[in-house]
Design a protein that fits this description.
Layout (H helix, E strand, L loop, with lengths): L1 H18 L17 H6 L4 E7 L6 E7 L20 H28 L17 E5 L4 H12 L3 E6 L18 E5 L12 E4 L6 H6 L1 H22 L2 E7 L26 H21 L3 E6 L2 E2 L10 H10 L4 E4 L5 E2 L2 E2 H13 L6 E3 L5 E2 H12 L5 E4 L14 H7 L7 H17 L11 H4 L3
Parallel strand pairs: 3-4, 3-6, 4-5, 6-7, 7-8, 8-13, 9-12, 10-15
Antiparallel strand pairs: 1-2, 11-14
The structure holds nicotinamide-adenine-dinucleotide (NAD).
Membrane topology: Single-pass type II membrane protein
InterPro entries: NAD(P)-bd_dom, NAD(P)-bd_dom_sf, UXS-like
Subcellular location: Golgi apparatus, Golgi stack membrane
Amino acid sequence: MKQLFAFGVAIVLVICLYKSWGNPTGAKLTLGIAAGENELDANPERSRYVVDRDADGEGTVRRRVEVALRRHPPVGEEAGGAEVGSKDGHIDEVHQAKQQILALERKIQELEGRIPRKYPDVTFLNYKNRKRILITGGAGFVGSHLVDYLMMQGHELIVVDNFFTGRKRNVEHWLGHENFELIHHDIVNPLFIEVDEIYHLASPASPPHYMYNPVKTIKTNTLGTINMLGLAKRVGAKVLIASTSEVYGDPDVHPQPETYWGHVNPIGPRACYDEGKRVAETLAYAYAKQENVNVRVARIFNTYGPRMHMNDGRVVSNFIIQALQNQSITMYGSGKQTRSFQYVSDLVDGLVALMASNYTLPVNLGNPVERTIEEFAVIIRDSVGCKSKIVELPAVEDDPQRRKPDIARAKRYLDWEPRVPLKEGLIKTIEYFRKELARSNHSQRNIFVPETTEKK
Ligand SMILES: NC(=O)c1ccc[n+]([C@@H]2O[C@H](COP(=O)([O-])OP(=O)(O)OC[C@H]3O[C@@H](n4cnc5c(N)ncnc54)[C@H](O)[C@@H]3O)[C@@H](O)[C@H]2O)c1
């Protein structure tokens, strides 16, 4: 009730202030800076009362503030004096109005902050059915969607992330929820917690990110994976390793079944990631064989959707951002190389199904609908509705020429296949990027408001 009352007061305040800008004679009034009450007593015509919150924020007080009454002639009247209606006067007035709007916005934001947070309505699971689940890299693109899914199912989630490529914003809607915990931790260091299941997703996933610090990428995928497998062994948890289609390298078998051993350059620029993931798989099966750890391995193919990084250099995000800004859409190479993209919700369904299954060998999770990069460029341009040119840039070293998963295993053992059509997924993703680009300062929701939050 208190919060609602406070919110009501803020609204009344807004209306009062706006009303104070007009007067019965049709002249405009401007509210100036507050002055001391004693001084104002001596100049009653310069002052007026406003209703404001008291220092505790519990009630309202009447406060006398200085009012600078500047008269501007009603429309159609002649300007009377040097100051009245002058250009400087208008600029001053606009500036003051902007300051007041900013102050009001801050006040409303502060009051909103006092309203108890509302969370999505999660399913209630009793103690027997509720699992405690760890997601490493849960503040990243895929991880945050998996968090949403498992939270809605009613499980307890612990997200561990070092925020290298992940963002708190991706999971902020769960912060404070009784089933959710976010731990800032680098999985290269051991972690001691009690969990039933581990989705091990922590690793940079896009080429610019994993090439930024190749040694760290290798450490995350090797030492980090050892730490997670060690944790799974200690607490008896089931662990799912997020591997990648990159373990197939630049494949000479097409489409790629899980039985294909791959064609990877071990010293190329992508090797830190490709080989890192291959070792992660090897580690998983070594722990399974030697330590009886219950492992699952998902070989994830290209995935797209909201919360992808704006500048992760991957095809979908690159093309969408270029198209939204009416810039040329740039393809590396001829554009004849193929990719297949799955929407993120399909991947999340696949990961959950794999974890729940009894199948322990690697499983491809991807969309088998294959398209050339050039086709993607055209589809994205049409979906955005722009007139961007499509241009070719020099090909990238070790860029795979063909990528298409054979998903027979996933169909057979998980009863899984992608369901979201490309156009549908693209519309949601384009919408997401449109909003991201519209954010003026990248943190629209987090305006720093020290003066109003401090108690006076
Ligand atoms: N998105 C795809 O198309 C794709 C394709 C194949 C495989 N994968 C795999 O899926 C997983 C998730 O990928 P994503 O697209 O969400 O990437 P992402 O970069 O958005 O998320 C990775 C997360 O891991 C975190 N992280 C990285 N190193 C860490 C460390 N040392 N300790 C703790 N946290 C760390 C990052 O901060 C980030 O939140 C990755 O393992 C990736 O290899 C993704």
